[in-house]
Design goal:
Strand content: under 5%
Number of domains: 4
Number of helices: 34
Shape: elongated
Structural class: mainly alpha
Radius of gyration: 34 Å
Largest sheet: none
Helix content: 55-70%
Number of strands: 0
Distance between the termini: 83 Å
């Protein structure tokens, strides 16, 4: 208002001027008023001096100078946080696409009163509830990356506000919590509710610090923090530390020492009392639940730094006044300093990429995603890129080869570790989620149901397990059980269509018969009981029930090759014609050629013959092997280059 009045006075003072000059001056002043508001020059303390200039030219020059200075400062101070957040979005949407999809599959947010109320049986309901609600949108990776970026922006703003209240005006320091969160969010075990919990702790701290009255601040903490603990759990302990430090460092009354003591006492007493009277929670989780802390090395260090970074920065800024502000540094920045700032951001992401980003895990969960979507070719493309031996990757590779009809042809073009690569061990971890896939595709329906059910018991409701339970129940004709799971799945917004699809299949026999997966598994249902092998796959039992089960037959031959049991392989290979083969698959052919040569036999399935090129390659292999027979290591080295992807090399040089 003062600015407008002074401008009006300026206008009246120049009424005697010529009409053309007056209109020109008014136009310029109007533009400048808009620019002043736009660039927030009202906060410049020197603005009052501008109206003491006698020269209109000097007035305009002063306004222009202040506007440009303000613009430069605002642009520079926004450049680095903005650039960091843009890179944050690109980092997750490009490098962590499958990671985001994997997180979405580990939860199932449902609009159900019982589901929501269950969260409030323990402290920390709010971050868990909000985290699950937002994670459901991770079904689209770009939306997940956007949510993570917006969350990072909110953390930055709150951190900046808290630090400024401690007289620390910095561009980079508020980015530290965002940077540490990015490191942690690169770990597939760090769920989004953890990020939400940290944000809530900062929010409470910012609200507390924003209250100027000491009395109201004390009342706010002592009255509201117990509710904060109940809603956000262990994350509220971070607020205790930040609020207590604020009183210690910036409080002016002697009562601040008493308030700090009361804050600490309340921080210890409230969780303890609630755990004894209202909430059933084990003693070791009273102050930490639902914080995750079961990490190792770099991630664990980053987690600890995240929780203490704001208190640590405020303490450092208090004792080292010179680093408390970089405003002057940026407002008077040169090209060199701007480049230095860019290098700092680059270095932060270099550390993330070098130490936090796990390309192997991203490939692994990417393979899992394509297997879940039955995109076998894409799964094999990612498996080709995986650099090391990994049980899950090899298991998924063999499953993809089986379902794409390439197991007998290309099995040894990929790394193999024996029969361990054909199925996963029964363990109450992620194996329960991944391990049931093979039984489903072998039409071992009850075993697939068992793995899916146990996975749901171990990890809670999730879309993957529910879908498998629905289909296997439909295959078994247990429509009542299937409807129960369909009802649960239908409560999740993004899976309502899937639930409706299954509901229609149950109610329409025509659709039931047309569904290829359901009809295939129904045709291969077990009709003769047998005892499930906890460490095997009951392939022979499946074939006794249904001798036409081609996937079980191929997996049986593959398992015999991996076990190096060529006698049993030779007994079963003669059935090739029964399954519609027109030629002997390459890996099976290599095994049979070796067996015939070694055992001096001539076993060839009826109607088939060996390819000339396979015989030629085997003769080359045998010649080289004979040459280095006395030196096994030298033979392996000589044969690796040309024959490493053959069954012969696996048979003689790969030890499982």
């Amino acid at each position: 208002m003062i600015l407008i009045k002074q401008l009006c006075f300026y206008r009246a003072k120049n009424r005697s001027k010529q009409e053309g000059q007056k209109h020109e001056a008014y136009s310029k002043l109007g533009i400048l008023i808009f620019q002043l508001i736009w660039f927030d020059l009202r906060r410049v303390s020197q603005i009052d001096t501008l109206f003491y200039f006698k020269s209109r030219k000097a007035t305009f020059e002063y306004i222009y100078f202040q506007m440009i200075q303000r613009l430069k400062g605002s642009f520079t101070k926004s450049l680095f946080p903005g650039g960091f957040l843009v890179l944050l979005f690109l980092y997750f949407v490009i490098f962590n696409k499958y990671h985001i999809l994997y997180l979405e599959q580990n939860q199932l947010f449902r609009f159900n009163l019982t589901y929501i109320s269950d969260f409030f049986s323990l402290p920390g309901a709010l971050p868990l509830l909000i985290g699950n609600f937002l994670t459901q949108f991770f079904i689209y990776p770009w939306i997940g990356a956007l949510i993570i970026t917006l969350h990072g922006f909110a953390v930055y703003l709150l951190s900046k506000y808290i630090l400024e209240k401690h007289n620390i005006r910095s561009v980079f320091l508020p980015l530290m919590p965002v940077w540490l969160l990015t490191i942690l969010q690169s770990n597939e075990l760090f769920t989004f509710d953890q990020s939400v919990g940290f944000l809530l702790s900062l929010l409470f701290s910012a609200v507390y610090i924003s209250v100027n009255s000491n009395k109201y601040r004390y009342v706010l903490f002592l009255a509201v923090w117990p509710l904060c603990y109940y809603l956000s759990g262990g994350f509220s302990i971070i607020s205790v530390i930040i609020c207590a430090l604020y009183e210690l460092l910036h409080g002016r009354q002697k009562s601040r020492y008493m308030s700090v003591v009361l804050y600490i006492v309340e921080g210890f007493a409230v969780p303890f009392i609630l755990s004894r009277l209202l909430i059933y929670i084990s003693a070791e989780k009273i102050y930490l639940y639902p914080l995750l802390y079961e990490f190792h090395t770099f991630s664990l260090t980053s987690l600890v730094l995240l929780y203490i970074c704001i208190p640590l920065i405020t303490l450092t800024g208090y004792f080292l006044k010179d680093i408390a502000s970089d405003k002057k540094w940026f407002l008077q920045g040169t090209v060199f300093k701007t480049v230095s700032g860019i290098l700092v951001v680059f270095l932060m992401y270099l550390i993330i990429y070098r130490y936090a980003y796990n390309k192997k895990t991203e490939l692994m969960v990417g393979i899992d995603y394509h297997v879940r979507e039955a995109e076998w070719g894409k799964a094999l493309e990612l498996a080709d890129k995986y650099p090391d031996l990994n049980n899950l990757v090899i298991y998924y590779t063999n499953l993809a080869l089986l379902n794409s009809g390439q197991l007998g042809e290309k099995m040894f073009s990929y790394p193999q570790i024996g029969t361990k690569g054909l199925r996963l061990k029964w363990e109450r971890n992620a194996n329960l989620v991944f391990g049931g896939e093979i039984f489903y595709y072998l039409s071992y329906n009850n075993e697939a149901y068992r793995w899916a059910f146990e996975a749901m018991v171990a990890r809670g409701f999730n879309p993957r397990s529910l879908k498998r339970l629905i289909i296997t129940s439909i295959v078994n004709g247990d429509y009542e059980v299937a409807n129960k799971y369909i009802h649960i799945l239908g409560q999740a917004p993004f899976y309502h269509k899937s639930a409706h699809k299954y509901d229609r299949i149950i109610s329409d026999p025509v659709l039931l018969e047309k569904d290829p997966e359901i009809s295939r598994n129904r045709n291969l249902l077990i009709n003769k009981d047998f005892i499930s092998n906890a460490s095997g796959m009951n392939l022979n039992d499946l074939l006794q029930n249904h001798p036409e089960n081609k996937t079980a037959f191929e997996y049986l031959l593959a398992s015999l090759l991996l076990e190096k049991d060529l006698d049993a392989f030779a007994e079963n290979i003669i059935r090739l014609k029964d399954f519609g083969y027109t030629s002997i698959p390459l890996c099976f052919e290599e095994a049979l050629v070796f067996y015939n040569f070694y055992e001096r036999k001539n076993i060839i399935p009826e109607g088939f013959s060996f390819r000339l090129e396979t015989i030629t390659r085997f003769n080359e292999y045998a010649t080289t092997y004979t040459k280095f027979r006395s030196d096994r290591a030298a033979a392996a080295y000589a044969l690796r280059k040309k024959h490493a992807k053959t069954y012969w090399y696996y048979l003689q040089f790969v030890n499982n």
